[in-house]
Amino acid sequence: MDFKLNTLYEEIGGADTIQHLVNTFYPKVYADPDLAPLFEGDIEEIKRKQYMFLTQFTGGPTLYSNEFGPPAMRHRHMPFEVTPTRARAWLRCMKEAFEETDLTGDAAEAFYARLQQVAGIMVNTPD
């Protein structure tokens, strides 16, 4: 028997789904009073990096590592005050983006669960 296991990337719909998610997510982040101070600079560049990261994070092509090296996201976010409140706000924005992009089902739940783990790891400053 020949089994091919699909990646989370494939199961959620690949590049188009991730691009739609990122495009839906970032306006929420920039509008959130807890998160907006952390996101300065070109929103398009931030979205591009997030697209690359989420593509790789879900098992798609290693776009992020190819350009920037290993993700090491906690280390990359150390200059920013990521509080528990901000982590929750980030997850709330992401959950809303999942809902608005109709990202549902078992694969979406697995993806969101992984993002919850990441959000917890990113916290580096108390509230």
TrEMBL record:
InterPro entries: GlbO/GLB3-like, Globin-like_sf, Globin/Proto, Hemoglobin_trunc. Keywords: Heme, Iron, Metal-binding, Transport. GO terms for molecular function: heme binding; metal ion binding; oxygen binding; oxygen carrier activity. SUPFAM superfamilies: Globin-like. Belongs to the truncated hemoglobin family. Group II subfamily. PANTHER family: TWO-ON-TWO HEMOGLOBIN-3 (PTHR47366:SF1). This is Globin. The lineage of its organism: Bacteria, Bacillati, Bacillota, Bacilli, Bacillales.
